[in-house]
Amino acid sequence: MIDTLLLAACRISTFEPARSLTHASGFLFERDARLYLVTSRHVLVDEPSGHHPNRIEIELHTDVDDLAKSVRFSVLLFRDGQSQWHQGCDASGDIDVAVLELDRAALPPSALVRAFTPEHLCRVGEPVEVGSSVLIVGFPLGFHDTLHHLPVVRQAVIASAFGLRFQGQGYFLTDALTHRGTSGAPVVMRDHDVAHAAELGDLPWRLLGVHSARLDMANRDREQDESLGLNCAWYADMLMTLTDDSRTPALTGAREPVSAQSSIRV
What we know:
Elements: H1 5-8, E1 9-15, E2 20-31, E3 34-39, H2 41-44, E4 55-61, E5 70-76, E6 78-79, E7 82-83, E8 86-90, E9 93-102, E10 133-138, E11 152-158, E12 171-175, E13 186-190, H3 194-199, E14 205-217, E15 230-235, H4 238-242, E16 253-254, E17 261-265
């Protein structure tokens, strides 16, 4: 028996066209019977670094009794020259979150799908205290259990006032050790409301955010000052906007910085 939280996270590999580019993290989100892959937008395209993959692969388990069995599921990022993911922006600029709708019919029949839903998001007015313990579930530097194809978790704490847009941006801060490859990982908290946790079934976690990048001070003295060790996580309620009344057909897969502050993609 393992925590199903580990099955909700996905390892993402990007390609262009067959050349392997990067590895990142993501997770599954389900709404109105539609299934989405969620990750950071810069995993799918990042103009500053010239990152332009044309497809991704995610790894899915296929046997609940033998987690060593998995399959790679390939998804094209463009169709007829049009990008197939949904991304958003607000008054402060682009939001570093993207969702790709997955075609359930194209998934392996035996695929083990564990997905967050709107019920996993924080309810309006629900308190999340600063300093609260959370988990970041992902694949730092691509590291994971290569036998069982499972992610690892990093302990973190909420480092800014949850519910407020830090410096006017659509994210909050976490204090945690993170690395490249963690981009797109879910930031979660155990749901201690017994009644509500029961409603969530075998995935009793609160989905708070989507990990995006490490934050650092642009004017930090690299010899005298250590890195801040802070990260930005975009509020997960953005998923309700990105998955609202989607008119883009499900994708067919194939089995097989603020003033004196800068962000570092991870």
